[in-house]
Amino acid sequence: MTVQPLLPLIDSHCHIVFREFDDDLAVVAERWRKAGVCALLHACVEPAEIPGIRALADRFPELRYSVGVHPLDPQHWASNTVDVLREAALADSRVVAIGELGLDLYRATNLQDQLQMLTAQLNLAEELQLPVIIHCRDAAAEMVDLLQSRKSKGHHISGVMHCWGGTAAEMELFLEFGLFISFSGTVTFPKAQETHQCARQVPATRYLVETDCPFLSPVPRRGKRNEPAMVLHVAERVAELRGESLEQVCLQSSANAAQLFALPYQAPA
């Protein structure tokens, strides 16, 4: 790490249950703690992951997690999936969100299948009064249409647009729904101009930082396996783009994440 933060950080989206961490997770944990990462939110992409993520929460007390089905994983959706997710959420207070859910029309065209999974999970989140983790790629218009339709019928939502990569205009629409915006390693990429503008423009109380590890490793580690400690590089770049100190971004993003997801974080006095 190039800079040691004075204040704790939260990695608001990671996937350390993936096999990329099978051989050295203890060392990875040492690095995230040394980097100041005091809490992590582990996102779930399909129900079969839940026992493994729960075991990680037993191992690392700073970890909380979600339960859900990713829009690109319809093969893991069945008639009883909502019941499985509900049971898992109610069985463990460390489940603090539903997701990773959403729409992805970059890698798939099965919009109706994705909408079915998304709607069912949004309903579950509302039932359980939990925030959602939204994956949205090349589908901002479709997502806005769905959320607007639900809002007009009295449905309300809390959550985050994960690993945000859309435009500032799209971001403003999601902010109007009350959603947070999360920045990953893509904010460090030189050509990600739209993401840079979003980081500059997002209100201070409405953004998070994340790794989405093992994916999207930030500059200067691009091309390597990503891990929670590297959220520091994301925070550094966000601070640079916003013209703020790293300390400000650490404090603000952590307070925002803790507020949204009830994470184990206490702001320094």
UniProtKB/TrEMBL annotation:
It is an enzyme of class 3 (hydrolase). It comes from the Bacteria. It catalyses: D-tyrosyl-tRNA(Tyr) + H2O = D-tyrosine + tRNA(Tyr); a D-aminoacyl-tRNA + H2O = a tRNA + a D-alpha-amino acid + H(+). GO terms for biological process: D-amino acid catabolic process. Its cofactor is a divalent metal cation. InterPro entries: Deacylase_DTD3, Metal_Hydrolase, TatD-like, TatD/YcfH-like. Keywords: Hydrolase, Metal-binding. Its EC number is 3.1.1.96. The keyword Chaperone does not apply. One of its GO terms (cellular component) is cytosol. Coiled coil: none annotated. Binds 2 divalent metal cations per subunit. GO terms for molecular function: D-tyrosyl-tRNA(Tyr) deacylase activity; DNA nuclease activity; metal ion binding. A divalent metal cation 1 binds at residues 13, 15, 100, 212. A divalent metal cation 2 binds at residues 100, 135, 162. It holds the Pfam family TatD_DNase. Catalyzes the hydrolysis of D-tyrosyl-tRNA(Tyr). HAMAP family: Deacylase_DTD3 (MF_02048). Belongs to the metallo-dependent hydrolases superfamily. TatD-type hydrolase family. DTD3 subfamily. This is D-aminoacyl-tRNA deacylase. It comes from Synechococcus lacustris str. Tous. The gene is dtd3.
